Amino acid sequence: MKKVLVTGGCGYIGSHTIVDLINHGFDVVSVDNNINSDIRVMDGIREITGVSVRNYTVDLCDLEKTRRIFANEQFDGIIHFAALKSVGESVFQPLRYFDNNLNSLINILQCAKEFEVENIIFSSSCSVYGNTTALPVTEATPFQAAECPYARTKQMGEHILQDFTHVNKNINAILLRYFNPAGAHKSALIGELPINPATNLVPVITETAIGKREQLTVFGNDYDTRDGSCIRDYIHVMDLANAHTKSLQYLMEHKNESNCEVFNLGIGEGVTVLEAIEAFERVTGTKLNYKIGDRRPGDVGAIYADNKNAAEKLGWNPTRSIDEIMSSAWSWEKYRSEATILQD
Ligand code: NAD
Ligand code: WQD
Fold it and tell me: Which end of the chain, N or C, is more open, meaning fewer C-beta atoms within 10 Å of its C-beta?
């Protein structure tokens, strides 16, 4: 059994990926200091998979403590999710974002080198493309200026990995650029559980529908799109999770052509904000209270992925549509609102 270190394993994408890894026969160890998560997500993972995953409650910015994890275990691969991810917060706390996201990555790479872990997957983001107008976005689309410090940490993280693998030829890395992850595991036992208030569209929709928020504002209906609202590429979190398993298998089976490869992870289609709301109302039978408001500063009108590279090389085939995103996100929202265990 191959042993994988998942950093940020208590987080949204990390927890769903752990489920997919276990379902594909991997032994998983997590490290997460719960700066943006709750350790009780491990209970949900155990209920789904029957496996208790060990979590080291360690800040990855602490090199000595991180090193002790590697000294205790023998990893075949690392999936590095751990990072701070709020675009808005990063604008006001740039040093905290650079410190956390870059130092944790550097420490992970330092340990990978020292303890000879050959396979590394890094969570990047479509935000590395900045305000691009080239559609669909391919992996070769040039980066524009980062729109916020968070996005800059992802651009810098990619450069760090490229420079690192350039001189450490025995280490193989894959950089995964996620578009808009959304939805939850179909069991509704795990899902997005941020400590900070949600700002992403899908949790804002479900929180409005359940009554935690009074009204949703659609940020602009005067873009040059089919209905005037912004277009994004919403990718179901379980499809996204499976791309990590496939990436590890690809590296472990030595199918990679270079020791640092990049893949876009999106469904390859754009959905407007108004279409997303319509899908939510249709699949859940719940009316949403929303209004049209001003544009949100920094938003691009449209962005969606060209995902052919991941389909062809990794054999990745995302199957879940916006409807499944909405129905699973809604089940999770209802579970979360009813389950007292998740409310402090
Ligand atoms: P998340 O906040 O739910 O999970 C990240 C986890 O990392 C959290 O549990 C947090 O406690 C942990 N963490 C952060 N800093 C740490 C540190 N120094 N030491 C130990 N643990 C630490 O976020 P997510 O949505 O699951 O995102 C996972 C990764 O994917 C991040 O790198 C994020 O930037 C990237 N990403 C997310 C999205 C998205 O929309 N969710 C889109 C593109 C890329
Ligand atoms: C989606 C669409 C909004 C909320 C962000 C990060 C990006 C990546 C993914 C990490 C936009 C509209 C939203 C609301 C709305 N994350 N919207 N009303 O901005 O595409 O991407 O998450 O790497 O870096 O920037 O996602 O979910 O915030 O917005 O109308 O209350 O929904 O304008 O068009 P975004 P989002």
Answer: C
